[in-house]
Amino acid sequence: MLLARELLRLGELYRQGGACAARAGVFPESCLLRQQLLGERHPDTRAGRAALAAALRDAGQLHEARQQYELLLEHCLAGVGPAHPETLAARSGLAATLARLDEFAPALALHDEVIALCERQYGPGHIVTLDALAGQARTLAHQGEYSRARMLYERVLEGRQRVLGTEHEDTLRCTQQLATLLRDMGDLGNARKLQENVVRVRERQAGIEATVTLQARARRLPKSLPPRAISAPCATCSSRWRRRARRLGSDHPDTTGILLRLASTLSQQGELEEARRLQQHVVNLHERLRGMDDHETLRSKQMLAQTLSSQGHSLAARRLEQSVEEGGSRLRQLRAMSSGLHDMAGAGFAAPLAGGRPPAPRGTREPGGAPSTSVPGGTDPLEHKLGQLHKLVEGGRAREARVLADSLRESILRPTVARPLRRRGVALIKQVYLDDGDKDALLAFAEDEVAALEGALIEAAGGRPLAMR
Fold this sequence. Notes:
mainly alpha; Serine Threonine Protein Phosphatase 5, Tetratricopeptide repeat; 21 helices; globular; disordered C terminus
């Protein structure tokens, strides 16, 4: 359970850092461990599955997220009943996922079920009921039912202001969502008023230079709009973006790509402030979904820097360009590390990895009778060994598989090993120990994995020591 808990913590750190893809990569193993140790319907297993489903949805893996939400809902219904908060959350998560898959009828039916249960159990003005109404409003907005969505958002906003206050985080989020909807409906005056309210609260609460304040400013509509009508290319891009957002979701790569093309068109027409606003929005999305140093994040930042330079904001543009250069450098270093030491030229690097002995020619035997694993053509020897281990496991050659698994258990946990290769190797080694019935070896390997994971946790937390729970 310690490993499952630490994997969940690492995933939460990735979420806070905006690395949704990495977050979706660590939750499956945490969920699988809980399932194996505790059973499908244990509360901790359900919590792990809920985190996995949300991570998959945020990463755009909608069909996989739907499958996890459906399993979660089945287990919640069997374990805690239809009106339990876990079950309501699972229904809402499944509804949101179906909405992003453009399956609006079943999504809205699920929302109706959740709202009816909440109103009956908590009352129409309870915060849980308001959250359920907000989920339905988001689905209606995705569907293009703007008038119905507006009515629900206004009801939710009024309720949250009454229950939580005007400056609560949930109230501010609903205010921004309603402002975005009003902007899409063309009610720019009211949308601007709501956005100005959010900016004022952010400045008072967090300060004028805080990240949340800057993000609120970036979403703000310009005070004056060009008097002339929008051009045909912009109208075409805007229409395509709305259709794509309804079908795929506003965070989908295809949707953000259309936004960047729309920003380029606006920039060419001289509407630099509107282009900057769209580019800033895409940068914020990319940082949240892909991470600070993703290739697409760096590309959108470079486009934003060019617009800032054209507006005369040379200092801000230069800072952003430096950020792009530093991110590109980190990305190259990360790729070099992920490839591992085996990709480096020269036989001198192979000796330390083979325990200090020079590599034997391909086809000969190492001391002790084991075949050499040196591979010509630049293939990673570790990947080749894992292929051998897989064949031994599949072929039922347990003794040879155990010897090879023991020899790989240290090297597979090195930080330079690429995550997909490490995940595959860890799973194979655990399978060998499970087949061998050696619980001590399995526990020792799990402890080694936790130790390696703690290093990744500390690195993800910026070097700060982490308290164990």
